[in-house]
Amino acid sequence: VSGPTTLPPPSVDTVTRVRSAREMHRAVLDAAASADVVVMAAAVADYTPAQVETDKIAKRDEPMTLRLERTPDILADLGQRRTSPRQVLVGFAAETSEVLAKAREMLPKAKPQAVDLVA
User: Fold this and answer.
1) pTM for this predicted structure
2) Element (H, E) at 3
């Protein structure tokens, strides 16, 4: 499952192209249902605009507020929906501070078990 990129696709049977975090969430969950191993890079996006405009927003004199909503956590949802303890999930998280502490906070969400933590 891949978002927009200029990189050539990997040598695999199927490449599913998506444009949004929500599309990626749906496509990854669908594909993972029959996978033995799932390898995920950092989150596609933690937040997304609450409202998408179809046209350019014209300049105004007053400040503008951009409202964001959390996007679904694909890796956490995979951990919760794992149907077999034999399915291997490998995830990477990009953090800028307290890297190990934040990674340890994520481990309990990796149902049924998280095996290791590498810094």
Assistant:
1) 0.73
2) none
